[in-house]
Amino acid sequence: MNSLPGTPLLSASNLRTWFPLRAGFWQRAAGAVKALDGFNLDISAGETVGLVGESGCGKSTAGRTLLRLIEPTDGSLTWHGEDLLRMSPKALRAFRKRAQIVFQDPYSSLNPRMDIGSILAEPMRIHGLHRGSEQDRTRMLLESVGLLPEYAARYPHEFSGGQRQRVAIARALATEPEFIVADEPVSSLDVSIQAQILDLLLGLKERLGLTYLFISHDLGVIRLISDRVAVMYLGRIVEIARREELFRAPLHPYTQALFAAIPKPIPGKKRFRATATGEVPSPANPPAGCHFHTRCPLAFDRCRKEYPPMTGGESHRVACWLHPE
After folding, report:
1. Is residue 229, in this structure, part of any structural domain at all?
2. What sign results for the dihedral spanned by CA atoms 308, 310, 230, 210?
3. Residue 163 within any structural domain of the chain
């Protein structure tokens, strides 16, 4: 499937994913957790978009909603310009072959009762790929992620954390996807293993022409792997820019607070002093106006009343009343 010229590979507009809260004996609706609440993002073919933010800001929900692993409450979502939320079952099945996910914890995402060969062959059988040559394809997948072909006979518990994550990446590649959501794929690994997995992902992108949404809370990892970086707070993107531009001159006070929280400054970069004070508001009851104003040292009256629109140029956009144009 080919996109029209200028059409993003995947596009989310005003996406909302709310989880109902229920209370009382009859479990009546008592509100909702607004995990995504006006989420907008365009992802172009061949790029890596890094999605960064504090725990609980909705990053993982965003990744799963983009793949329709979680159904959105409202908004629009397109794939190659086609409405992803109104696809026929046949078209949705084809989409699932072309869009895959690598989860944060490879141990819980791999079936402990299946050997690695069966784990990698299962998505091929489901989508009718490589009939009669599944074993050859399995060996190729293992080699492509730096594992020996004979590991196909082993079980997940026989591998280290880094090796299991390589298996998870191989499983995502089994259907020959063009888009992969990598949801905190290195956060549970040692630093040296993180570097190996990141190098693997970068190499696969180059060889296979993959597109990534890379989710992480680690700005160092995000800077290494991303082409563009989107900063998320309480269900919305508050700033998005080319990687080097964001790291050179972050505009949103929340983004500056994330930089200030880095234990050791990035070499050659100035130290930001802006900090986020207080507790993160509940996504079940976000503040009026700019959601960040309760923690922002630069907030003024308008911030408390109106949510700022996303403004700026093509390479750098921000939702902040300090930057109205």
Report:
1. yes
2. positive
3. yes
